[in-house]
Each structure stands twice: as structure tokens, then as C-alpha cells.
Amino acid sequence: MTELLTAAQMRVIEQAAIDSGEVTGLELMERAGRGVVEAIFEEWPELAEEHHGLTPDLATDWGPTPEPLEAFNAEPRPLRAVVLCGPGNNGGDGFVVARVLKERGWAVEVFLYGNAEKLPPDARVNYERWSGLGGICHPWLSTIYDNDGDLRGKLFSADLTIDAVFGTGLSRDLGSVHADVWSAFDLDTGAICRLVAVDVPSGVCSDSGETLDIDCRATGVDEGLFAFQAELTVTFHRAKLGHHIAVGPALCGKVVVKDIGLPRVPAAPGICRAIGEPLAPWLRKSSTGHKFANGHALILTGGFGKTGAARLSARGALRVGAGLVTLGVPPSAQMEMASHITAPMMTRVEGAEGLKAVLEDVRLNALCLGPGMGQERARELVPVALAAKRATVLDADALSAFSDEPEALFAQLHEQCVLTPHGGEFVRLFPDIAAKLNEVPTKGPAYSKVDATREAAKRAGCVVLFKGPDTVIADPKGRCSVNSAHYDRAAPWLATAGSGDVLAGFITGLLARGFAPMQAAETAAWLHVECALEFGPGLIAEDLPEQLPAVFRKLGV
Ligand SMILES: NC(=O)C1=CN([C@@H]2O[C@H](COP(=O)(O)OP(=O)(O)OC[C@H]3O[C@@H](n4cnc5c(N)ncnc54)[C@H](O)[C@@H]3O)[C@@H](O)[C@H]2O)[C@@H](O)CC1
Ligand SMILES: Nc1ncnc2c1ncn2[C@@H]1O[C@H](COP(=O)(O)OP(=O)(O)O)[C@@H](O)[C@H]1O
Ligand SMILES: [K+]
Description:
Homotetramer. By secondary structure, the protein is α/β, with parallel strands linked by helices.
């Protein structure tokens, strides 16, 4: 697992390194800027060839696009870059990038948003160094109003555009200055060729992955996403949370993390981690253990016509390695269930008394309630299940059943529980937290899905797994991780009915095997996405458990 940092955590790490005398801020900025150029050349090797233009033209560096015949006969022109620099250290990185490209023979235009006199010290040094190369630094606003520097034309004809306007320091709302920029240009940054964001696309809050809203009435700007749409984002030391949650991933394009020589991140409970490949030995079964040594899961089902969801969970629990799985079925669904199952077993569970009787078997060590269960049955059975103090997953109807009185549910939960809400279920259980999360942020750092999940876990007193392409998992002590289904792990085919039921089954199966709740939830979430990737497009929920053998083989289980 690698850390996903907030801006404040990154600043602490950077400051500690500077204070220790190991490195200066200026050196870090130089490494950051050079890291950006390195990542660009790795991404587009054709840009690394010095002095070779991609599309030759006859005019000066920034002339119009020539006719095809003229272009054919023309000498190669230098490659062109536009570098947009902001008022802080992100802008400082931009000046370094500009200088490095210029030294390699590129034609570089730098636009500064902000006052050169007020740049922070390291950024100021790099501004001076850039100016020493003869570069003109266009003040952004005068460019717009005088139409002097023709930023728009340059952006759309550049081979590369660097967004170094705001990085981790974006703190205020974007204000009227930025609104002017965007309205004057009606800038669709998605159409700009090779837009590379330094650290984070400007306008995206690096802690929350949210874009900061502006007051559209005050500025007269149409509503929209006030953030750059990058093709590549180059960040430093570690990825930030905003690269993996909310709309951040959609705006980052691809994320590359460059080492800038900072020491590893000290272990601290506040630091969130990205869930990575589980270790094979965790998932292996003991060569001598019998089936009961791998746990016995009980999955409660709904009534007639509503048993499919629980069967998906059961299949998931078995495939992930639970020794035995029993479906707890009401009388109305017994025939239906019997005609559908082979490896899972079934037992009759009529109501609260029925469940109490079944739970007298203490070998039933992991319970799953919710998938297809029906809210009425959930209201009756959840209290009995929770009173038995077994490892318990509550999903779907077992969560929605308590939307009128979430506090009653929280009072019964214990630390062996895992709640697995999707966005809708989260709102029902934690309406105030969801309201904070769904508020349109105007200031950074914005309240994030990580903040919301941590707060929910603390209130519930157990592990909460908040689903989505950016699944966030937290425990009551603040431990937190993100299972990112983005970039090379994008798994949009998981958005299919029943895939959440399989996830609940994976968690239940791992709990039965003795995994701790947080570890079960993290491992299951990672396996769930991996199964979707293994199958690929066309995936439906039934396919997910069937991919586990291949996934386990690849992991070396
Ligand atoms: N922290 C680190 O370890 C390193 C940071 N570096 C760079 O430094 C960046 C962070 O620098 P800063 O903290 O100076 O922050 P930024 O450069 O991201 O922006 C902060 C500046 O923008 C202003 N500002 C914030 N929101 C605004 C708004 N809505 N409208 C107008 N102005 C606004 C602030 O007053 C401040 O002047 C990183 O993203 C990274 O690019 C790198 O140089 C390498 C190392
Ligand atoms: N676009 C997506 N990319 C990756 N995973 C997704 C996406 N949409 C949904 N998921 C995952 O699919 C599962 C859906 O669960 P849920 O909404 O409970 O569905 P159901 O109730 O039909 O089983 C969750 O694990 C969620 O994280
Ligand atoms: K940026």
C-alpha cells in the first residue's frame, strides 16, 4: 500500500526535509520541474528528440499553420510550449519546466497569472532565472484584454501546454480574476493538445478531488467545471488524495509520481493509503486445515423471488475461501432456493426466534445481512444478528431499514461489523455527513469522501466501506484507505446490478476465514476490482466470483 497525501501532510514532509538540512526548497523545486519534463518525454518520446518539430511550418516560432505543400518542403521548426504559471510554488515549478525546455531548443512562452514581485522566494528565483534566458513573461490579464499575446491561439497551436497555475496550495475560491480568464477565453482545456498539469490540474482541490465552485452570479460566467482538463498530471513524492477521489481522476488524465528525493512517509494514523495487491500468504489456505478451520458464513436471504442477491453473496463467500456457506432462508423461499444451489447449504430462518436458534451454532462465525433481504425482514433480523456479536456485514436493505432511526442501528453495532453503503444508502444513514460532502465547495481544502467516511466510521463504531469507483474504507480509529478503480484499474463494468452483493460476499467470506474487519474490507474491495479487470467488458455480477481462481493464481496464492 502506498500513501495518498493531503496538501498539509506533503508540506510537513517537505518542511521536515528542508529543516533537517538535507535539501533546500529550491532544490526540491528544481527536481520537481525536471521531473515534469522527464515524465513528458517518457509519455511522448517523440518530444524528446531535440530540435525536431512535429509539423514543420514556414513562419517564425509561432506562425500560422502552413499549407500542406509548403509544410512538406519546410525546415523543421522548434517544438512549442506554453507554460501557464500561477502566483505560488506551483508556478515556480512551471518556470523550471520552461527553462529546461528552452535549454533543449524549444520555443517557450510563459504566461504569469499573478504579480512577479509577490512570488514566494523559490518561485521568484526561478522566475528570474527564466527571465535571464530572455523569455518574456506575459501578464495574463493584460494579454486577454489587449489581445496582445494571443494566448488562445498559442494554446491551440502549441505542442505542449503546462498548467502550473495552482497546485496543492489552492485554498480560496477561484474568484473573479479566474472567472474573467475563463469567460474571456471560453477556454475548453480538454481541446488543448498535451496539457500537462503540474502536481494537480488547476482548480482541483488536491485533498478532496473536488473542483472549487465560483460565484457565477457575481462573475457572470456560465456554470461549468472550473478546472483544467489534463492529459497527464505529474505529481511529486506520493500521489495526493485528489488524484484518486471524486472528479479528480477524470481531470488528471494519467498520473505519474516523480521522486524528488524526499524521505519515505513516516507512519501516522492520519495518513490514508491506496489499497494495493494483497500478499499471497494472507490468502493461502493452511495445508492441514479442514473446512471448519476456514470458517462458516451464514447469509440471510429475502423471501420468494428475492433470493438471487444472497446467492451472489454466497458464491462470493465460497470462492474467496470460506470453508462453509449456509443461506438462511424464510419458508416462502425454501423451494426456490433448493432448486438453485449446489455448494452452498441452506437452513430455514423464519424470524427473530429462528435466527436465534440457528446462531446457537457458534461455528457460524461470519454473518451477512442485506442483499435482497427486504427491509421488514432486515428490521427483525439485524438486531438478533448484532446481539450474537459475530463478524457481520450489513449491506443494502440491512442499511436502508434503519434510515428512519440510524441511531438505533449505531447503538447495536460493534467493532466486528462492516457497513457497505453505496451513495444512496450513505445518505440514508448519515444524512448530515452526506450533506456536508455534497455541498458545492468554494474553498480548499474541501470536505472529502475520505473525511466523510472517517466521520461515519467513528459514529457507527465499526468499519464503513463507502462504495464507488473511489471506494473509501475507514475504521473508527481513523485508519483509512482508498480502493481506486481509476486509471489502469478503471472498472466501469462493475456498475452492474448485483456486483455489490458479490462484494458483501467477498467480505463475509474473508471474515469467516478470520480476517480482521478492516483487512477483510480492503482485501475484498481490491479483489472485486481485480475480478472485473480479469473478465473485462461484458461483465455481469455472476462472473465476478468466477474470476477469483485466475486472480488468486496471478497473485501466487
Ligand atoms: N510541498 C512540496 O513538497 C513541494 C511543492 N512544490 C510545488 O509547490 C506547490 C505548492 O505551492 P504553494 O503552496 O505555493 O501553492 P500553489 O502554487 O498551488 O498556489 C498557492 C498560491 O495561490 C494563491 N491562491 C490560492 N487559491 C487561490 C485562488 N483561488 N485565486 C487566486 N489565488 C489563489 C495563494 O495565495 C498562493 O499565492 C505544489 O503543488 C508543487 O507544485 C514543488 O516545488 C516541490 C516540492
Ligand atoms: N464506475 C464504477 N467503477 C468501479 N466500480 C464501480 C463503479 N460503479 C460501481 N462500482 C462498484 O460496484 C459495486 C456496486 O455495488 P451496489 O451499488 O451496491 O450494487 P448492487 O446493489 O446492485 O449490488 C460497488 O462495489 C461499487 O464500488
Ligand atoms: K497545476
